[in-house]
Amino acid sequence: MTTPTLAPGRTAQPTLFIPHGAGPCFFMDWNPPNTWDRMAAYLRGIAATLPARPSAIVLVSGHWRTKDFSVTAGAHPDLIYDYSGFPPSTYELQYPAAGSPALAERIAVLLSAAGLEAEQNAERGFDHGMFIPLKLMFPNADIPVVQLSLRRDLDPAAHIRAGEALATLRDEGVLIVGSGMSFHNMRGYGDPRYTGPSQAFDAWLTQAVQAEPEQRTRALCDWSQAPHAYHCHPAGQEEHLMPLMVVAGAAGTDRGSKVYSEVVLETQLSAFRFG
To answer: How many CB atoms are located within 10 Å of the residue 138 CB?
Structure first.
């Protein structure tokens, strides 16, 4: 991995929890046409808010679950079009970002040193939780990316610990991104009966993210006790919330803040930044 150069006076990279939308929603027609415009604008604007160009990106997607943590270790991973029923053009989207076998090995070592089993997968490609938002965030695809899986048991404490293990990478210019959705119940999208519950959960989640770090960790570990938690993330299907746990763990003592929020498809969706 190339050693980054942070500009004088600049801080380490922040950590981000971003929404990645619905499949390839940003790259196709939608009804109404402006459904995803504000989310797309938020994603496009992220690069300008960073202290420096990232040396690499570690991205945790809600679309990859393995028994133990796993990292993509290929030099040039293929894309995985893991969505269905969308226009043919969306299966031709490209994002030729390089991988980083050296960074993948380092991540596996850091996780193992923290007592977390981790493996490297040189065959696994990049799923749409990675390439759809990154096409907006860094459209030139010129920053190496390593994707980190979720652990299949979806234990929030384990994912927070994984983030803690990777926190030192931030000081080297590595941007740690959690790609998921703050609300993810397929039955709820488009249903106005879920607007209130999603807003109540979002308010709780915002308070948890903005709390001091020890309180934040306790709250996120107990996320299922939040108002309407299982209306927003059905039990056993909370994989789109788990990337938040990783980036919160990697935040260390940095406080979190809400940096984007709106009602989309009748549900409140938000993004958070630490640092």
So the answer is: 21
